[in-house]
Specification:
This is Sjoegren syndrome nuclear autoantigen 1. By secondary structure, the chain is mostly helical. The protein has one helix at residues 2-107. It has one helix and no strands. It is rod-shaped, with a radius of gyration of 51 Å.
Length: 122
């Protein structure tokens, strides 16, 4: 029976050794899980921070785009009004030249016309 006891003792030792190896591997995996969970938490926090930053940038962009659109509208309206002013100035200049020419023609004495007392032809 001592051979059976020795074999049993050998099996027992081998079983204990296998259990200890399994526990060691389990501990390694547990440490790896803890590290990855920590990394996951950091990544989730980074995502939260970046999402908040993205929202702020989008809000800022929307405000700036609206402001730019208002500038574009104001510039377009001002340019249109300026063009109308230029057209009116050109029209006024043409009318003034025409009236000036008409007045010059009326005030120029005809050749041989007698002068009136004021120095103007009749």
């Amino acid at each position: 029976m001592s051979m059976q006891g020795a074999a049993l003792q050998s099996y027992n030792n081998e079983l204990v050794k296998c259990i200890e190896e399994l526990c060691g591997k389990r501990d390694e995996i547990h440490k790896s899980i803890l590290q990855e969970e920590e990394e996951k938490q950091k990544l989730q926090n980074d995502i939260r921070v970046l999402t908040e930053r993205l929202a702020k940038v989008n809000e800022s962009l929307a405000k700036k785009m609206a402001s730019r659109n208002e500038f574009d509208k104001t510039i377009a309206e001002t340019e249109t009004a300026y063009m109308k002013i230029l057209e009116s100035s050109q029209t006024l200049l043409n009318v003034l030249k025409r009236e000036s020419q008409s007045l010059k023609e009326k005030s120029t004495p005809a050749p041989g016309a007698p002068l009136q007392r004021g120095g103007m032809p009749s």
